Description:
Blueprint: E1 8-10, E2 13-15, H1 20-26, E3 34-39, E4 42-47, H2 53-56
Antiparallel strand pairs: 1-2, 3-4
Amino acid sequence: MAVTVKIQKWGNSQGIRIPKNIIDILDWDDNEVVEMSAQGGNLIIKPHKRKTIEELFANYNGTYEKETVDWGDPVGKEIW
């Protein structure tokens, strides 16, 4: 499905509005986080996939040593 939209100035940036029927087809929410890129003269918008902890540390070759952190005594109404 193709629709025509207009690029509009929003503050110091420009923006486009994504029509509701496109959002519905994509099954996106109002506050969807997306990634944008330009490829071959086209704008690509796709959902942002948050990386897992395994993906974030996939190339980490160091060693991990568990350590205890002393946060000090409670000062206010903290619940420990």
